[in-house]
Amino acid sequence: MRAELQRDTRHWLIATACLTVAPHTLWLPSWLSALCAILLGATLWQAARARRALPRMLLLFIALAAAAAIKLHFGHFFGKDPGIALLAALLCLKLLESRSSRDARAVILLAFFLQLGLFLNDQTLAIAALALCGTLAATVTLQSLHLGAQPVRVRLRSGAMLLAQALPLMVVLFIFFPRIPGPLWGLPADAHSGLSGLSDTMAPGSISELILSEAIAFRAAFDGPLPPPEERYWRGPVLSEFDGRSWREARFSTAAQPPYVAAGPAYRYRLTLEPHNRHWLLALDYTDQAPPGSRYASDYKLLSTRPLRERIRIDLQARPQTRPGAQEDAAVLAAARRLPSTGNPRARALAAQFAAPGATPAEILQRTLEHFRDARYVYTLNPPLAAADSVDDFLFDSRAGFCEHFSSAFVFTLRAAGLAARVVTGYQGGELNPVDGVLVVRQSHAHAWAEVWLPGEGWRRVDPTALAAPARISTGLAEALPAGTVLPLLMRAEFSWLRQIRQRWEAASNHWNQWVLGYDRERQHELLQRFGIGDTGWQRLALLMSAGIALLVVALLAWAYARPRRGDALDRAWAALCAKGAGRGHRRQAWEGPLDYGRRLAGACPAQAQEVHAIATEYARLRYRPPADGDAVRALAQRIRRLKLQ
Amino acid sequence: MSTGATLRQRLGDRLWRTAQAEAGPIRLGQRRIYVLPSAAGWAYGGALLVMLVASINYGLSLGYALTFLLGSVALVSLIHAFRNLLHLEIRPGHAEAVFRGDSAQFAIHVHNPRPTPRWALSMKAGGGQPSVFDLAAGETATVLLDRPTTRRGWLALGRITLETRYPLGLVRAWTVLRPQLDCLVLPRPEASPPPLPPASAGDRGGMLRRSGDDDFAGLREHHYADSPRHVAWKVAARGGPLLTKQFAGIQGGELCLDWSGLGAMADDEARLARLAAWALAAHGEGRSYALQLPGSHIACGTGSAHLHAVLRALALHGGGDAR
């Protein structure tokens, strides 16, 4: 082991650190990213100019200052984010003071931990590729600790060879290692921060913020035909309580059986939900036969018994034609009629017109719908800021809004007219990926609509947004918005080729998510069953894993023992002749030259004497009068093969 | 040798199967190569364990993948380390005689029969410094191993270790060998010995004509200790080599280095040291000398072969064996 670090080892070490720290800058506080960049720069400068090390006291001071700043920034030390921040600072500092191969090893181990920390934030394909590069750089660094200076290409090749030999072993371990459903102990409180999705309250502007995100909320793979676009309503929180400005969920109960009688055609699908740290499962209306681990809420949404903290897959069945709520609880209806005592006087006056004496609920609903259709409200992503009376403001002043304004104003008006109504949030629509036939639903598909209760019929879904912008429901957001609205890049029609690339990429990501990131106990079971392995207890898995590893290790050992064939083609041909001679009891002696041996062998086998003599002469000619050309060597080898000594 | 050290030696011989020194070439097969994680390897393993637990806890699929990849790399590096030693051929070379107290140097030939290079090999004899070397494809290297010498006589090379931590330093692959190779340790000559004893009166009448300048006998190579008066300056002035004139008178007296002539000295080792110093001095002066030891006699002679025979007899006196 060479104690002092070589120059190029130092460079490889810096490359490893950069590959590991760089992606973290997306999540690290900016001051810390800057500090890491400065420290890495200082290391590079030191390596380039062969400067002396900074004084230890200074490094210690920087370390303490960074730790204090991290404590100040996050308010605590124990958690995912401060932990990663500390690791990153430590890695850069350790790199700066690295002198010996021992230091280099410490840096490499820190880099591995930091790499793992990155996966807490991001596990996409790109990050995985980056991690592979980081591992390669780390391997090369470790290797260079033992070897003298070599060109980059040689170093990379031997590092890549190690990795290539390790990959099959990794795959065996990955497939067969028994998966234990975590967590083993309580996770830090911030372990699942940064997950976006719907919220259980809705104030003006809350959904239009979400809609700018192109992040995927969930994917649905249907068995058979897809439901028509107007039935693609994915139910999230149901908001019944209104305080004049924002809508909240009312109390609800949960049960194992659906609170409705499912009817109509069924659609079976597999839902893959991205984690959002809430309970709701965003199932298509209305679920039939809830799978284990889920329950029906009394307001018809499907809930998971545990918050969704990792990506999950569930198989569901929906019957969109179901008419729920014919016998609704009086308390639920009372809550769905309640309004604050004051506010939005103009809306209340409008409602009073609709609720003229003698009007049936169906007539009131009809009038309200006609008003929303005829008033020509504008559907826009950038609604003007709402005044104190948000409903009045939308209905009479700005006359422009997004789905939350439409649904909020619509439900308010119906309630003011005495009907039971509520806001339902969730997602609407979805985008079919033609590559793999999966319906992709993004945060930009977030939506809010309304439900009205009619006596004798139950809850009827009404989408007031559809009245103003029918295209929103049938084709999508982009067509529904007036021209000139600034849309996210990929939603624009002229970038369809870009969208196509994205669809391919997302189909690949979906496979990645399903089979790599989502590889859990069930997937393991499913995969092994395909290969006819029914029992997936841990003992069986351990056995299979050991067998796989043993097989690969034997293959590697065979490689270690392999000895390349000795000599060139000409030598091998000559050796074949000598073997033939030895077979007849005339072994070539070590001191015998080809001509001598040929003479002796020819004497011993008079039948082939001429041929043996010719072969020996030809060999001597090819061997000792270079250069021998390949054809002559091949011809000689063939002659020797054909020769049969008697 | 103390009983503890003997016991350790025996145990080691049992463990490494090195009870018999091997004279012929040794080809390393799987039965002779041992592989265990190094200290760095244990640290690496510990880190992987922490990463695995973290992956389970947070349900990180890529965490599993990274941990498994790093673990597999370590396993593959173990096989690379093993392969780095496999099929090496080791032959004992030679060892020059040294004086006691100097370190003995044993030459070992290591041959790489494979057409790919071997990296970062390190060979070490007990108590010596390791020597680190690489072997190119098909190359044979001669490695010099140091061992300290404490006693005169034969010093066997004993057990040597050939190890490698290539490629990642996580694994130490090693082999323990005992090639048949001995080094003669000569008695350390006395630092400032008294002048040579007078030549014995005998065959030529005992004329000691040290200052004689008449019986010129010939020229020999100049030695550092020669008097400038005897330098053949004429030859030197002609551009020839520096030579010393030899005179018959100096060669005349036969010098006998006699063990029993040192009656006053009690310690055998001190006697041997004195005799060795005198032998060197006599050789330096180009004189002919004989050695008389209890039980052995070396007749009068000159030259380095004679000197070596005399020193060897001194080294092995009384069955001196440093093994």
Automatic annotation (TrEMBL), chain A:
Domain annotation Transglutaminase-like: ranges: 395-466
Pfam family, one: TgpA_N
Coiled-coil portions: none
UniProt KW keywords: Membrane, Transmembrane, Transmembrane helix
UniProt xrefs under InterPro entries: Bact_TGase-like, Papain-like_cys_pep_sf, TgpA-like_C, TgpA_N, Transglutaminase-like
Transmembrane parts of this sequence: 57-74, 126-147, 159-177, 541-562
Keyword Lipid biosynthesis assigned: no
Xref: SUPFAM superfamilies: Cysteine proteinases
Name of the protein in question: DUF3488 domain-containing protein
Organism of origin: Pseudothauera lacus
Automatic annotation (TrEMBL), chain B:
Segments crossing the lipid bilayer: 33-56, 62-82
Domain of life: Bacteria
Keywords assigned by UniProt, alphabetized: Membrane, Transmembrane, Transmembrane helix
PANTHER family named in the record: SLR1927 PROTEIN, SLR1927 PROTEIN-RELATED
The protein's name: DUF58 domain-containing protein
Species assigned in the record: Pseudothauera lacus
